[in-house]
Design a protein that fits this description.
globular
Length: 514
């Protein structure tokens, strides 16, 4: 059972996770227009391409991040420290090997990338330097996974997220310094990479929480008997996630290959950053819901399971529809203020992407229950179908629609996934009522947000405010009043508010966790 200290650590980890993710999203939101303005739309596309290539190669993790935390935590709870030591040392070998493979891939990409992507002759030398920087840093980045997994298993997420927050601050300062001191693109990319590596000694020092010498934990030595359990479980997670990961991370890479130029990647990065303001909450919702879902599923209490999914869907939907539709309402003004008139043509694609995010994230409670159940085989098939539809669609549409091709492709993937959940997985596998979850948990908030947005848009058009900043403030204020009025009247009940207060502030809440 989790004692007060564990509860405190979990709360601290969640809060710092929220702070770190929100700051990182806001920092990117602030720095991207500055960097695009300084380096230009074309050269910033090189940064977006480098980030995309690096992100997709994270697929080589093979699900080990989830599996390692799971087994390290299980062994730590039973004080099996020798097993943790053998497994962590084996993980150092595993991740070190992946890091070396990644380095080789980046070296090859430095030579062959200009012919694969829409990189001009002037950009090619800069691109090669960036690939060599990634090649030199990737081994350290992969090895750091082991350290973070060990700390996460020891309930040190609060510390991990604090260091992540510091790293995000450094990223932000490096971007400002690059503009202030007029750094070249390779110099900026080098310091950006170093700002992510400079925090590693803090992680290593924190491993003192284990009753094992740090050197013993991190000295590479292969031990298949300890490592086999982790890799066996992790491969099932990998198979489930490979198609979802590919559908998401391959989109900008396909744009770099088939769209009109690297400038498209800058446009992609702009609207992605705005969407990330919403997406940054996704992992937080999952982190909070997964332990509760696991407990409810283990109890095999079907009414309680359905109640948890329904209530979680309802309250997450209230939050998501509020954030998404206030962004949709002001989408054109946000792009105008954020990037300028040249980016207003992205409004429709930003709106579609935000709606896709809403479609995806409202399903988080069901997804947490799926992960708790372990019944993920059917999801592999739906993810595969979605991936095999969305990626070719992106390729076919890229020459004509550019960044819109990636947005349409991802929408197609998500429609297939959510359709599969509601039509098959929820009623057949989880034995829950799809109609109640969608029309009772999600749709009321969706309807209220649409009504509030349309009325706020009509009001904004009626008074015709020219200043975009003032227009955003006025439209948002009207939307907030209408949204709250609707939800207080039709969605959020007084009993629900009392229930939430009890759960959040009751001093005996630790009993529920125990």
């Amino acid at each position: 059972m989790a004692g007060p200290t564990s509860v405190k650590k979990i709360f601290s980890g969640s809060m710092w996770g929220i702070v770190a993710k929100i700051f990182d999203a806001l920092a990117k939101f602030v720095t991207i227009p500055l960097l695009v303005g300084y380096y230009g739309k074309g050269d910033y596309g090189l940064i977006a391409l480098a980030f995309s290539l690096n992100a997709y190669l994270r697929l080589m993790d093979l699900g080990m991040n989830v599996g390692s935390v799971r087994y390290f935590a299980m062994w730590e709870s039973k004080s099996k420290y020798k097993k943790i030591m053998r497994a962590s040392r084996s993980s150092m070998v595993f991740y070190g090997g992946i890091g070396l493979i990644n380095s080789l891939i980046f070296v090859l990409m430095a030579d062959y990338g200009p012919s694969l992507f829409n990189i001009s002759q002037e950009q090619a030398p800069i691109y090669r330097i960036m690939m060599y920087i990634l090649a030199g840093s990737t081994v350290f980045n992969w090895l750091s996974n082991v350290i973070i997994q060990l700390l996460s298993a020891k309930d040190e997420l609060g510390f991990v997220n604090r260091i992540t927050f510091i790293s995000s601050i450094l990223n932000f300062l490096v971007a400002l310094a690059a503009i202030q001191f007029q750094w070249s693109l390779p110099v900026y990319f080098l310091f950006y990479t170093l700002s992510n590596l400079i925090v590693l000694p803090f992680y290593i020092h924190r491993l003192r929480v284990y009753p094992i010498p740090i050197r013993e934990l991190l000295s590479p030595k292969w031990d298949w008997s300890a490592f086999s359990q982790i890799i066996g479980y992790s491969m099932s997670i990998f198979v489930m996630g490979i198609f979802q990961f590919s559908a998401n991370e391959l989109r900008p890479i396909l744009l770099a290959r088939y769209a009109s130029g690297l400038e498209v990647l800058t446009e992609y990065r702009v609207i992605q950053t705005i969407a990330m303001l919403v997406l940054s909450f996704g992992t937080i919702f999952m982190q909070v819901l997964l332990p509760s879902a696991s407990k409810v599923y283990a109890e095999n209490n079907h009414p309680k399971m359905e109640k948890m999914v329904f209530e979680a869907t309802r309250y997450i939907s209230v939050f998501l529809t509020f954030v998404v539709f206030i962004l949709i309402l002001n989408a054109d003004k946000i792009l105008l203020v954020y990037m300028g008139e040249d980016y207003l043509h992205l409004t429709i694609w930003l709106v579609i992407w935000l709606l896709t995010v809403l479609l995806s994230m409202h399903n988080t409670p069901v997804a947490s229950l799926v992960l708790s159940s372990g019944k993920t085989r059917a999801l592999v098939y739906s993810s595969a179908i979605g991936c095999l539809v969305s990626l070719p669609l992106t390729v076919v549409l890229a020459p004509e629609f550019n960044v819109g091709a990636a947005v349409i492709g991802y929408l197609a993937y998500m429609v297939i996934q959510i359709g599969f959940f509601y039509l098959y997985y929820i009623p057949k596998v989880l034995s829950l009522n799809s109609h109640n979850i969608f029309f009772g948990g999600f749709f009321p908030s969706l309807l209220g947000a649409v009504i509030a947005m349309l009325l706020a848009h009509y009001f904004g058009g009626w008074i015709q405010i020219e200043n975009p900043f003032v227009s955003i403030l006025v439209n948002s204020a009207v939307f907030v009043v209408l949204f709250l009025a609707y939800h207080i009247t039709f969605v959020v009940k007084a009993a629900d508010v009392s229930y939430l207060k009890e759960k959040l502030f009751n001093k005996t809440a630790t009993d529920d966790i125990n």
